[in-house]
Amino acid sequence: MWGALFGDQVDGYKDAFVYNGVYEIANAPIKACDPQWKLNPSDLDYQMTFGRKTIIQPMDATPTAVFPQYQTIRQLPKISTGNEKFDRYLIGVVLYLEAKARKVTIQNQRQISVRELVIADHSSEQPLVISVWQDFADVDCESVCGRTGKFDVVGFTALKVSGHKGFSLSTTMSTTIIHSPQGERVDGLREWVSKHRQLLSDMKSRVIGVRRSSDDKTIKKISALKLKKVGFNVS
């Protein structure tokens, strides 16, 4: 069963839980879950809610630290089965982050923020694009801004498949960005990063080059395009 934390609760409860710890929780009402918060259709239709009267008591004073089983880019299924979300964890090295969030118009002429993030890892030569939406684009990404040159490892949860620009991923309302992930696989990826910084620098340069070329939009006549098709260099 899932429990959702909002606003100041995130900081208030961040030290109360340890991953895979066992707790006794009191005064946390069980309510119907909004379908948008469900990671999978098989999840329960209810969720816990936390308030000022909620009491969280660890059952073991020294729980064993068990870290998430992170997956690589190559392990991601490339075919979507509908509104599927990943309930496993993904890690990657930050190569590129769009300088600032863009505003896009959706249904009912409502505008929302989106920002493009590109990550890589040792399992794939092809970087992965993640479309970061809403508050993630405005708030969470700020702490990632300085990581593109340091090649820090960042973790993600609850991403969904997006058809934008080929295979890519997109954040959801359930997504968490883990700025300092831990675990054996994370340590292995960090070690790989330390040995392949030049490779990552080259990948970053290619990603930036592609982004800059797509921003340089010029209007060409049909006659110029025909010349380019048959092999002439059109500038």
Automatic annotation (TrEMBL):
* Keyword DNA-binding (UniProt): yes
Give a GO molecular function annotation for the protein.
DNA binding
Q: Which residue ranges does the record assign to the Replication protein A OB domain?
A: 90-178
Q: Which UniProt keywords apply?
A: DNA-binding
Show which residues constitute the signal peptide. Answer: none
Q: Does the keyword DNA-binding apply?
A: yes
- Gene3D superfamilies the record matches: Nucleic acid-binding proteins
Alphabetized Pfam families for the sequence: REPA_OB_2
Q: Which domain of life is it from?
A: Eukaryota
Give the protein's recorded name: Replication protein A OB domain-containing protein
